[in-house]
Every structure is written in structure tokens, then in C-alpha cells.
Amino acid sequence: MSNPKIRRRTGARTAHFLIPLAAVALTATTACSGDNNDISSGGTGQVTTTAAPATASLTCQGAGIDDAAQIRYRTETLINAPLSTIWELHTDVEHWPSWQQPVTSIKRVDQGVLREGSQFQWTTPAPATPTTPATTLVITSSVQQLQPNNCIRWSGPAIGDGLRIDNGVHVWNFTEVDGGVLVRTEENWTGAQVEADIPTSTAFLGAGLEAWLKDLKATAEAGR
Question: What would the pLDDT profile of 96-131 be if each residue is shown by its tens digit?
Fold first, then answer.
């Protein structure tokens, strides 16, 4: 499934606290995003939200993140590469470790093209925080919604020694615009441990999502 033109990135980078763990959950009814109408054809900056967003949550086939969650983050970037390249990179989950250093291992529970109902289990290091120890998180992601080349939403828990995220919901939207593809993502975490320090947990979630988008952009544009 991997694109032979895509180059692997090997630069050292500090591992982030769980690159979006909830194997994505979020986007709009059949078309995937409730916000696609306000896209600026020339925008290239990232837009992030660490509290309740001013606009509606991203969705995939009508489902989004947990709106009641206290830990949530949203961001976006413009990628100058074909939509097919970006989608393949993103959904060929078994090859994530080749371009995302924080993903230390991954395996599919099922086989074939990623689809609704697919599951995959992956690991990523989590640094110590004032309330939790350093550990390796084992994340089990279940694809809940998927519309090819448009959106995907997954969810699931992340469990490590001394740390547990009960559930994470992660949504991705992909929209072709002038200059490339606008990739938007939003995720939330729930669970007593991470909710014990909401600002720190939100900061780690945001750092992971920003790093994921940065790596996706660099890898897709290098192989376009």
C-alpha cells in the first residue's frame, strides 16, 4: 500500500505524549465536514483550539469528538501534495513508524484496506508529568467512520504502566483547495488520570497533533 516515492524521515525528534490516540473519531454526514464551506483558498497557517471551539466540531459521516470532553484540541495545515498521496500515507497505518518517530510499533488486527470496523494497536512513549509517570502507551484504535479521500474517525483507549486514557476520539478531514489539500484534525481524551491536570494533558495532546501534521506534510510533499 505504501507509495514508493515517499521518502522516510529519520531526523531525531522528541517523542510526544501520544500522537492522537483515539483512532480517530470525528466528521460530517456523508460529506465529512461541517466546516468545509469556509475554507480560504490561500490560507496556509495552522489554526488551533485548546478550549471549546468557536465553530462546530469536525465530523465524519455525522460523528465527531465527545463534545463534553474537557481535554480537546483542533488544528489544521495546508499540504502541497496530491490528495491520494496524503490519504495513502495516513491510512497505511502499518507504515506509520517509517515517517512518525513517536510511533514505535504498530500492528493491524484485521487485514486489507483500512475500513470501518478496522482495528490497529500501536505504541508510543509518554513522558512523565506532574501527575503521571513516564511510560509506553499501548493504544487500541477502532475505525468508526471512514469516507475515502474525505474523512476518517477512530477511537479507543491508551494504557501504560501507571497511566490510562479511558478513551480518545480522533477525527480527520481532507479537503482539496487551491494550493493543495487542507488537512484538519480534532481529538479529545477522557479519563480520571488525564483529567486530573487538564492544562498539561491538553498541551501534550496539542503537541502530538501538531507534530503529526508536520510529519504528514513533510513526508507527503517530499513524495508528491
Answer: 999 999 999 999 999 999 999 999 999 999 988 887
**Sign of the dihedral defined by the CA atoms of residues 216, 103, 204, 137, in that order:** positive
Cα 118 from chain centroid (whole Å):
16
What are the residues whose beta carbons fall under 8 Å from the beta carbon of 143, sequence distance 6 or more?
A: 23, 24, 114, 115, 116, 117, 118, 119, 152, 153, 154
Residue type (1 letter), 43: G
Q: How far apart are CA 86 and CA 36, in angstroms?
A: 18
Q: Rounded to whole angstroms, how far apart are CA atoms 40 and 22?
A: 28
Mind listing the pLDDT tens digit for each residue in 45-55?
443 434 444 57
Which residues in the chain show pLDDT less than 70?
A: 1-54, 224
Q: What is the 3-state secondary structure (H, E, C) of the chain?
A: CCCCCCCCCCCCCCCCCCCCCCCCCCEECCCCCCCHHHCCCCCCCCCCECCCCCCCCCEECCECCCCCCCEEEEEEEEECCCHHHHHHHHHCHHHHHHCCCCCCEEEECCCCCCCCCCEEEEEEEECCCCCCCCEEEEEEEEEEEEECCCEEEEEEEEEECCEEEEEEEEEEEEEEECCEEEEEEEEEEECHHHHCCHHHHHHHHHHHHHHHHHHHHHHHHHCC
CB atoms within 10 A of CB 221: 14
**pLDDT confidence of residue 24:** 31
Q: Cα–Cα distance between 153 and 59 in angstroms, integer?
A: 8
